């Protein structure tokens, strides 16, 4: 199967805000990072407005909505507060994620199958406002089918477990997880969902995920912001873009 289109790169700038907030300064500015990312070839910007505002804050979303040329993908929990914020800004995309105050990062996917009536009602006004609604889920068949059932346009498959297994050198388990992600991507695509993937992706793990023909977008943040310390954000993004393109070309 050939690639279905150019693989888009969404750059997540959450951790520019993490560094800013560590010292309570006005810098580094997430919008400035986002504009640099745009110039380096990012197809979109992702920002996660957490309920505890540990990194991205409300005023960052306002600045990004006003300053960006590329689309904004707003990640958020399924709370009334977040829904009201999304409906006020109407970003290009809204990605619904599970959130726990105590977690260090997003640990799993959202339980769509276990929350169908509420999530159907939650998604409807976002869709009516013109946002592309994405569900951040694991590769579980039930979650993929439920995402299609509630009217989401997109699923973003959580690649964090695969990336962790790779980092720990657990290659047999990583291969099984990669296969499950591959099957999940194929199922989601067959149900008419646009397929994205993200979380924990680095130069070491991007090629295998970029090679899934159904995947249209990767969202990558933490690794790129870390790599930017050593080589600059533009160069870090260009390095990721090259690896994504090489993986897609190898499929053709
Ligand atoms: C939903 C997701 O996987 C990430 O985009 C998210 O932003 C992770 O949260 P932190 O950035 O707070 O680690
Ligand atoms: N949705 C995943 C994302 O935006 C980036 O995740 P990470 O690369 O910061 O782990």
From TrEMBL:
Gene3D superfamilies: Aldolase class I (3.20.20.70). 1-deoxy-D-xylulose 5-phosphate binds at residues 14-15, 50, 55, 105. Its EC number is 2.6.99.2. GO terms for cellular component: cytosol. One of its GO terms (molecular function) is pyridoxine 5'-phosphate synthase activity. Keywords: Cytoplasm, Pyridoxine biosynthesis, Transferase. It is found in: Cytoplasm. It catalyses: 3-amino-2-oxopropyl phosphate + 1-deoxy-D-xylulose 5-phosphate = pyridoxine 5'-phosphate + phosphate + 2 H2O + H(+). The active site is at 48 (proton acceptor), 75 (proton acceptor), 199 (proton donor). Its main location: cytoplasm. 3-amino-2-oxopropyl phosphate binds at residues 12, 23, 200, 221-222. Pathway: Cofactor biosynthesis; pyridoxine 5'-phosphate biosynthesis; pyridoxine 5'-phosphate from D-erythrose 4-phosphate: step 5/5. The keyword Transferase applies. The record marks 156 as: Transition state stabilizer. CDD domains: PNPsynthase. InterPro entries: Aldolase_TIM (IPR013785), PyrdxlP_synth_PdxJ (IPR004569), Pyridoxine-5'_phos_synth (IPR036130). It is an enzyme of class 2 (transferase). Coiled coil: none annotated. One of its GO terms (biological process) is pyridoxine biosynthetic process. Catalyzes the complicated ring closure reaction between the two acyclic compounds 1-deoxy-D-xylulose-5-phosphate (DXP) and 3-amino-2-oxopropyl phosphate (1-amino-acetone-3-phosphate or AAP) to form pyridoxine 5'-phosphate (PNP) and inorganic phosphate. Belongs to the PNP synthase family. Homooctamer; tetramer of dimers. This is Pyridoxine 5'-phosphate synthase. It comes from Cereibacter azotoformans.
């Amino acid at each position: 199967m050939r690639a279905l289109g150019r693989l888009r790169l969404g750059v997540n700038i959450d951790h520019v805000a993490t560094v800013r907030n560590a010292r309570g300064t006005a810098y580094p500015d997430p919008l400035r990072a986002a504009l640099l990312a745009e110039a380096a070839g990012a197809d979109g910007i992702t920002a996660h407005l957490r309920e505890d505002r540990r990194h991205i804050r409300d005023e960052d979303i306002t600045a990004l909505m006003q300053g960006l040329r590329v689309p904004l993908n707003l990640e958020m929990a399924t709370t009334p507060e977040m829904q009201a914020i999304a409906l006020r800004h109407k970003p290009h995309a809204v990605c619904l994620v599970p959130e726990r105050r105590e977690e260090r990062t997003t640990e799993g996917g959202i339980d769509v199958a276990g929350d169908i009536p509420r999530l159907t009602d939650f998604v409807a006004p976002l869709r009516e406002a013109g946002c592309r609604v994405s569900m951040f889920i694991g590769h579980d068949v039930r979650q993929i089918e439920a995402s299609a059932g509630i009217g989401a346009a997109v699923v973003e498959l959580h690649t964090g477990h695969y990336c962790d297994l790779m980092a720990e050198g657990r290659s047999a388990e990583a291969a099984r997880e990669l296969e499950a992600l591959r099957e999940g991507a194929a199922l989601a695509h067959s149900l008419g969902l646009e397929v994205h993937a993200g979380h924990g992706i680095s130069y070491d793990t991007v090629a295998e995920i970029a090679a899934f023909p159904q995947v249209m977008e990767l969202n990558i943040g933490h690794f790129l912001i870390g790599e930017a310390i050593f080589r600059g954000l533009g160069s870090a993004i260009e390095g990721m873009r090259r690896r994504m393109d090489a993986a897609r070309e190898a499929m053709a």
